[in-house]
């Protein structure tokens, strides 16, 4: 019934996730967090379409700013599926309708009959047979020109989610337990009283932002309404320019920037005909705030959820999350303490929704801890800054087996490398040599060099940079496996 | 009137200061904190007797465990006074009477007419002319066989301090504004009602633990009372053994351990005749808990006292102290957040007195963060652990100008040194060489080596240790400027 070839997926990953600071940063947003399950949220999102869309037909739709970071993140995973996805860069953020339309235009060029699955990149969803049945049913509906959404069976009168009211059954598209219905209407976040009514009524489902639809249909719907009619033309132009490598960044910025900033819910789903919802009792969460950390570990006898080293003495109902440092609490209640290598947040749990205000305030004073963390993912592995002082910087550099850094040089710093684990293959000034643990190399300023891990174990080196300038931008890349420039 | 030769000082520095965790650690206790003023509390205490006792007559009375740390701390200061003091190690802690008696016995051997000034090492006291007048007056009283204490004019009905009731004036010993009186009685910490009465009465003063007395008189007083009569004999034996270098550690432990654990207040001051108090409106604090941090910076408009980077958003009346990391609070009230390189404490201000419980709980689970911090002071400078991993450890090592480490070797680790600031003089396997910034050296396992700073600037090296064991105790010292062994 479904053809893997014509099924595409767009994973929406443009969000900055300020509400998760300090766990997330502008350049390592919420979708890259690996605290909710074994994989990061975006890796989980990609795997959600396993068996339905081929990896190369999965497209991460993100901002220009996050593109490198997300690619580094997914490329650094050993999983080949995650390495095979592709990326679309929105010239700037214009909410979900233009983002989805852009992906639709790209997919449409490759297959005019393409069906696309749209998924948020930063939610939690338990997959399994029911999820597969939902997708199966949704794809067949989409091929028949339905705009399909998955409706999550609500478990509480949540006021933070939108709801979908379900209408009559669409029996002919049922697949196992996935029993689609006409969507009667989309409802914005309700107040507490209405939310209670929705639950009592039984025909209302959570809108999880998951859609399945023919790309052509999405673009047609946008064309129909005057307020969104410009979107298809602009995204088709973008898709064509991108496909032919002739994208002019300034024009893309200007044209995409002229589009209305509008959600797909408003632009399409709420006012189209032939909209279906597949109600499903799936375990789902939008991971909306740091309070989601309360679910990742068992609370102690006093209701405290703790991850990381330390003690909670006479504290109650608090969340203490530490990535590596020791955190102790004494006599606190309903508090969140979120601790990372370089920054700590302390706030009452009831203020979880306002954490973005902290990120904004820190950004306003130029704190770099809102932009990036001490650890930076690279396509070949990662580095962590251990110390920066006047004229020097110390890093721990880890290279994934089989990968190498770019062939590069630095104009203003020398580097001292000491291998502490694994084996390094070094090229420096056209000389090749191998360094095992406890061996060191010196890379003088200006010399062209490359570091590679041909072994089976991760390579860890300690790098001591010395120079009058040790900023990240002092790098000239002569050759790079990921086409990065300086 | 006073002879500098016959005036000695005993600075009591055996306290562990668990109430200041995580700022203080077992091996860097409260008296070593430098957050209250430009110098550490113990350095301030030593300087309190400047002009009265010669530096070599100032004795730090401490435990065997803290001796090295305190000596490293005071030796690392550029101030020659702090480097000239000497140390007495109590075999074990037996409260203040045995500690003071031990110092008295040592001083008495050198000068039978010695007068000693006893000072806590971990208080704040503003010195100046009034303080000098108090000491002047106290010393003349002591020479006339008075047991003298300084009584701080109380500024509030504090229930955490002991009080001294003043009797008739001793006019002939007045010096400027220092107008001594007979001490009528010593009173333990009062309840709130009595504290109010003391303030209203006007003849009650805070007992700051500062005493001035002839050493012979202290020992005589102890001899008089059956419950303390054994103290003089034991401390005289200890002082003699220490002076002749014949101290048997096991016997010292046994004999000192047999002494009653009793305070000088109880053992001597409260029951002796001829006790004087010099009332003085000195600015003084016992720095009794982390709440003392509230005084080290101006509060913001919402009453928050903040030291270190970060923001406090809609927070009130809180203390946020960070040594180097970024800490943000949102909507907290009356909270303390104390952040250090490797550990963070969060507690309501009203629980400040119970912070020792946290230190005890952490000690019970073997957290090394209660024992020491990432930075360790050495007599030659300091080191900070940046990272420890399997088979390696990275340190930043700073060597004070003019100092050198011991001539040493390691049985199980090699070391890679990169100079990032200053110039190193290295001796390795009998070879001498100089390393300027951006130069490196390799010290293979087993080789005898030494690192020295002959320059005028601090020397900073990054040390990468690699080996199957990288513990601090893998060191053989062949020669050491401070007679340290392995």
Describe this structure in words.
- The structure is a homodimer of 486-residue chains.
- With 486 residues, the first copy, chain A, is an alpha+beta fold.
- Chain A folds into three domains: 4-285, Spore Coat Polysaccharide Biosynthesis Protein SpsA, Chain A (Alpha-Beta Complex), CATH 3.90.550; 295-364, no CATH class; 375-479, Jelly Rolls.
- Helix content of chain A is 23%, strand content 31%.
- In chain A, the strands form seven sheets. Chain A has a six-stranded antiparallel sheet. A five-stranded mixed β-barrel of chain A has the order 6-9-7-8-10. In chain A, strands 12-14-16-17 form a four-stranded mixed sheet, with no helix packed on it.
- In chain A, strand 19 and strand 20 form a beta hairpin.
- In chain A, helix 4 (96-110) packs across helix 7 and helix 4 packs across helix 8 (230-243).
- The longest helix of chain A is centred in the first third of the chain and has 15 residues, at 96-110.
- The model of chain A has no long low-confidence stretch (mean pLDDT 94).
- The interface between A and B is large, with 55 and 55 residues.
How many H/I helical runs of chain A?
11
> What integer value in Å does the Rg of chain A equal?
25 Å
| Assembly form of the protein | homodimer
Shape of chain A: globular
**Total count of domains of chain A:** 3
Mean pLDDT of chain A: 94
CATH architecture of the largest domain in chain A: Alpha-Beta Complex
DSSP summary, beta strand count of chain A: 28
Amount of beta strand of chain A: 25-35%
CATH fold topology of the largest domain in chain A: Spore Coat Polysaccharide Biosynthesis Protein SpsA, Chain A
Largest sheet of chain A: 6 strands, antiparallel
- Given helix and strand content, the structural type of chain A is alpha+beta
CATH superfamily of the largest domain in chain A: Spore Coat Polysaccharide Biosynthesis Protein SpsA, Chain A
CATH level 1 name of the largest domain in chain A: Alpha Beta
**Which strand order does the major sheet of chain A show?**
18-19-20-27-22-25
């Amino acid at each position: 019934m479904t053809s893997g070839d014509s099924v595409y997926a767009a994973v929406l990953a443009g969000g900055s996730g300020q509400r998760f600071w300090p766990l997330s940063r502008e350049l390592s947003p919420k979708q890259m967090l690996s605290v909710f399950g074994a994989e990061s949220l975006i890796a989980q999102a990609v795997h959600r379409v396993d068996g339905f869309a081929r990896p190369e037909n999965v497209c991460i739709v993100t901002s220009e700013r996050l593109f490198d970071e997300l690619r580094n993140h997914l490329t650094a995973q050993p999983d080949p599926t995650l390495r095979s996805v592709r990326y679309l860069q929105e010239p700037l953020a214009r909410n979900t309708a233009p983002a989805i339309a852009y992906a639709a235009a790209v997919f449409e060029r490759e297959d005019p009959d393409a069906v696309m699955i749209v998924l948020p990149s930063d939610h939690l969803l338990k997959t399994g047979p029911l999820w597969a049945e939902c997708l199966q049913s949704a794809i067949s509906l989409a091929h028949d020109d339905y705009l399909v959404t998955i409706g999550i069976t609500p478990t509480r009168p949540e006021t933070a989610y939108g709801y979908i009211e379900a209408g009559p059954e669409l029996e002919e598209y049922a697949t196992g337990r996935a029993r689609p219905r006409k969507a009667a209407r989309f409802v914005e976040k309700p107040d507490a009283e209405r939310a209670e009514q929705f639950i009592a009524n039984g025909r209302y489902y959570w809108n999880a932002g998951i859609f399945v639809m023919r790309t052509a249909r999405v673009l047609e719907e946008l064309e129909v309404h005057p307020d969104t009619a410009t979107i298809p033309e602009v995204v088709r132009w973008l898709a064509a320019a991108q496909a032919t490598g002739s994208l002019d960044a300034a024009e893309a910025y200007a044209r995409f920037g002229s589009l209305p900033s509008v959600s797909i819910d408003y632009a399409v789903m709420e006012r189209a005909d032939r909209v279906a919802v597949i109600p499903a009792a799936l375990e789902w969460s939008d991971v909306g705030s740091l309070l989601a950390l309360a679910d990742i570990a068992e609370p102690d006898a006093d209701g405290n959820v703790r991850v990381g080293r330390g003690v909670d003495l006479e504290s109650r109902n608090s969340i203490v999350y530490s990535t590596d440092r020791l955190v102790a609490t004494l006599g606190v209640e309903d508090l969140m303490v979120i601790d990372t290598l370089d920054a700590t947040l302390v706030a009452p749990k009831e203020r979880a929704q306002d954490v973005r205000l902290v990120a904004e305030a820190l950004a306003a004073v130029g704190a770099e801890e809102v932009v990036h963390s001490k650890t930076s993912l690279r396509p070949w592995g990662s580095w962590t800054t251990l110390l920066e002082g006047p004229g020097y910087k110390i890093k721990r550099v880890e290279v994934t087996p089989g990968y190498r850094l770019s062939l590069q040089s630095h104009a203003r710093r020398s580097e001292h490398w000491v291998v502490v684990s694994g084996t390094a293959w070094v090229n420096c000034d056209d000389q090749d040599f191998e360094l095992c643990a406890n061996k060191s190399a010196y890379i003088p300023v200006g010399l062209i060099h490359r570091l590679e891990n041909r072994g089976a174990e991760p390579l860890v080196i300690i790098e001591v940079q010395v120079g009058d300038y040790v900023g990240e931008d002092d790098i000239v890349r002569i050759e790079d496996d990921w086409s990065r420039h300086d």
